[in-house]
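Review this chain:
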Amino acid sequence: MGQNTGKTREQVLAELRAAERDGTLLGNHETGETMRELYPDRYPPAPAVKGKTRAEVKEELRQAERDGTLLGNPETGETMRELYPDRYPPPPAVRGKTRAEVLAELAEADKSDEWRNNPNNW
């Protein structure tokens, strides 16, 4: 049998207690609402999330303009790159796996019976 690299019982219980304290446990299975969302008065306010600076947002906008990821058509959800591909450089090519890498992956899956137990992943 494989090596157990999961969490210990103590770690799971600590996470459960923390979720009970902060209200992140699922409160309604049908809607997916947490206990905090259902009963906000029972929990302390959630910690504030640090936002981005104006400079960071401007840089993200400039990058999106350069690479064409800005929304070009809100009705269809197409980006500027999708609408006007000739205006943007081609995306960098993604290196595929070598034959040796694929064979090693297959050998590992064969040893663990992963592909037999879950054929949809292959």
In short: The longest strand covers residues 26-28. The mean pLDDT is 87. The radius of gyration is 24 Å. The helical segments are 9-22, 35-38, 54-67, 80-83, 99-112, 114-117.
